[in-house]
Write a structure and sequence with these properties.
Order of helices and strands: HHHHHHHHHHHHEEEE
Structural class: mainly alpha
Helix content: 55-70%
Number of strands: 4
Radius of gyration: 36 Å
Number of helices: 12
């Protein structure tokens, strides 16, 4: 019983339940089949009994070993299949030498059940540690680490070293550079916790059929984003000491892309941690600002092509900065995918709606409009006393090229007047 309790006792509740249930059902099934195999082999006499038992042990052992190669079976029932093969072999072979086969099977089954029940009671009642809760915190923490890197990168990459009053070159705080590394190595932990969480009953805010697979999807997207951040980390260590003219031109756009992306990730991390639906107004606003910064960078890049063709810029000098900006664009695309995945998680897991504080929460800033989006007619105010004698001007805004035309229009009054229609 002590050996059974030691084998079934694990650090988290899901692992304990997985081990106990796998071991219990495997022992019960294998014990019953072992007893049946013993009585079946007795039908062939003393000479045929060992041959039949050996054939059955070899056949079920081969089937059990082959079944363990299936990914789904190996992920959830690998331990149970192993115990099944061992128990069946022990009961079958022992039955050939021991006459009291039922007593042996009953003794082993009762030992397993008592040990497993003891572990389950301790894990459920005395000291419960939930794998699902650990997975929930891990995914939220990973998004927070990505946001920390982007926030530090956006504020430090374009802030070149300056000489302070003592004449020494000031060094930036590079502690944020290693924030993404833990995210890259979290795959095995996430899959293990998700597997154990599948066995756990409903607890706290986690329901019985909680969407644990969605956490794995968010983890995959977070690791994809972390790979891009690893590339940015390499460019940060090799950035130039003095800024070029091109660096100054793209500084605002790239900094905005990095900072706004970090704000989106912080919003999503807070949403997962508090199990509240992500604030669509805030997250979408930051994401929209980052995409506007991408458009600004593309405009700057289009004007830079002219300078390159005229040999006023060196391609080797601006190539690292262009690469950094392109990686930031890929990061924004990953953040957009993560936002959609978190939104799906909030729907599937039935996250509660966030409370809106109208007094403290500022209204989202509207993005600047770079182009004229409407078409209309602007009529200037004319003095009432001068309507009959004066001229009125009608300005029609078409959004195309600027053309002016003057036509005569008969006024509704007796006197004639001229109206100038100006197309802008």
């Amino acid at each position: 019983m002590e050996a059974a309790a030691t084998a079934c006792s694990k650090s988290v509740q899901g692992a304990t339940l997985s081990k106990c249930l796998n071991r219990g059902f495997a022992t019960l099934t294998a014990g019953a089949l072992g007893v049946g195999a013993k009585y079946f082999a007795d039908l062939f006499g003393k000479e045929g009994e060992p041959i039949v038992l050996g054939f059955l042990v070899f056949t079920l052992g081969a089937l059990g070993t082959f079944t363990r190669f299936f990914p789904h079976m190996k992920r959830r029932y690998d331990y149970g299949i192993l115990i099944f093969v061992l128990t069946f072999s022990m009961v079958t072979v022992s039955g050939y030498r021991v006459d009291k086969i039922l007593e042996l099977a009953h003794q082993r089954l009762s030992t397993i059940l008592i040990g497993a029940a003891t572990c389950m009671i301790i894990s459920l009642v005395v000291c419960p540690v939930w794998a699902g809760e650990d997975l929930h915190k891990l995914v939220s923490s990973n998004l927070e680490k990505l946001a920390t890197f982007l926030e530090g990168f956006g504020s430090e990459y374009f802030s070149f070293s300056k000489i302070d009053e003592s004449g020494k070159v000031s060094k930036e705080d590079k502690g944020f550079l290693g924030a993404y590394k833990a995210v890259l190595n979290s795959k095995a932990t996430e899959e293990s916790l998700a597997n154990f969480a599948w066995w756990e009953p409903g607890h706290k805010s986690f329901r019985l059929r909680h969407p644990w697979k969605q956490y794995l999807k968010i983890g995959v997207l977070a690791r994809e984003c972390a790979c891009h951040l690893q590339a940015l980390s390499g460019y940060f260590n090799s950035k130039p000491q003095l800024p070029t003219e091109f660096h100054k031109r793209i500084e605002e756009a790239c900094t905005k892309m990095s900072i706004e992306s970090s704000k989106v990730l912080k919003e999503l991390s807070s949403s997962i941690r508090t199990m509240t639906q992500p604030s669509s107004s805030s997250a979408e606003t930051h994401l929209r600002h980052s995409k506007i910064a991408v458009d600004d960078f593309k405009v700057i890049l289009a004007t830079t092509e002219t300078l390159l063709f005229s040999n006023k810029l060196d391609l080797l000098e601006i190539f690292p900065a262009i690469t950094v900006a392109s990686v930031l664009i890929d990061v924004i695309n990953c953040v957009d995918k993560i936002s959609e995945a978190v939104e799906d998680l909030s729907v599937q897991a039935h996250f509660k709606k966030a409370k809106k504080n109208k007094e403290s929460s500022p209204s989202p800033e509207k993005p600047p409009q770079h182009h004229l989006l409407h078409r209309g007619i602007v009529k200037p105010v004319v003095d009432v006393d001068d309507v009959e004698g004066g001229d009125s001007v009608v300005i029609e805004i078409c959004g195309g090229g600027a053309e002016a035309a003057v036509t005569e229009v008969k006024p509704p009054t007796v006197k004639k007047r001229e109206e100038q229609i100006v197309h802008v």
